[in-house]
Structure prediction request, 404 residues.
Amino acid sequence: MSNLAFEAPVRVALKSRVVVQGPSGSGLTWTSLRIARGMGGTVGVVDTNRGSAALYAEHFDFVHLSMNSGKPSLLIEALAVATEQRIGTLIVDTATMFWSGRGGLMSQVDHLALNKYNGNNNKAWGETRGQEQDLFDALLSFPGHLIATLRTRADYQLQELGEGRFGVVKYGTKPEQRDNFDADFHFTLSLDMAHAGTVTKSRVLDVPPGVIVEEPGEDLGKTIAEWLGQGQPMPDVLDIRDQAFDPAMTDDDLRELHRLAGKANLLRAAVLNEHEEVEALGGLIARKGEQAKKENRRPTRPAAVEQPATGQPAGEAQDAPPAPEHVPDDKQFVASWAHAIAVASGGEDAKEDLDTIENNLRQARTAGEASTNDYAHLYRMLEQCRARLGLPYGQPPNATAGTQ
Prediction:
């Protein structure tokens, strides 16, 4: 029996994927910074143009990473760091570097063909194709808005300038990237030497293909981001990663987390793991699932039941098996919070007091005052108290402090 099933579509809020292309001198960097400012959030620039984006530091507020190599692994690492720093809009200026620049895919193919495969480019491409796919997966899975600039090959033509005068005009032709680079992007803008942009591809109904934007900038960025951002919110990639780090997560929990990340198209997102190394989110979750299976973890947080069918108190019917003895990272921290939970659970306003403790505990964790180990232990204690008292459970362990 097939597990496939068609379902009613649900529109989800997407982050923008934009290509800005044009010949050298057409305003790729300036235009991208203006569009990014309209999209909102912290703007970051991966600068492969010898740091030239820094020339505009007085005109735009952005963070900057200068890069002089086109190795795909370096850009994937930059995407992971940008995710960690919660950069809202990332500009890769230019993505051409990772194709035809020093260390880019083309230079790797040429090196392999010359030194390993006796001039056979097909075999050389076979060895590098995995890097290419990993790079595109990481780009398209970045959790913020993404703008990739592409240089186009320059050509020249004689053009009438009026009043009997003629001049040579520079214009762009084919982008210096793989064919159909923008196939999975939402929007492509082609610039001319007057810095005007022609929309050559668009999934944004408010700005259809063929439209010429004389001065593309903040308004265009805002329009793209707002149109694509309509719909059901997507889960946060760092929240998913942090849930995978939780030592209380069982193999089944992590399978569900993997499914959630897959549904949000985040499995290929580049993140930093517990060793500060770059890893795809899906691979990280799968690895943590194997670890949970080897450790034979059992659920420590019972499912909430409003009215137990047996008539027993909720806590008696739903108590979890005893957890292993906890070895605290901070004995005083754990002891003080455990005391507060015990006192609150015996008071007349137990629900309100336990909710307050939960929120304060989350804030302590966000502020770095609690290790993951101690936080998971105290959270289990909190939920076990609620189970004994027949109270509804709180929010998932990794919810943001103060959310309702």
Observations:
- The chain has a mean pLDDT of 85.
- The CA atoms of residues 221 and 297 lie 47 Å apart.
- The first strand starts at residue 17 and ends at 22.
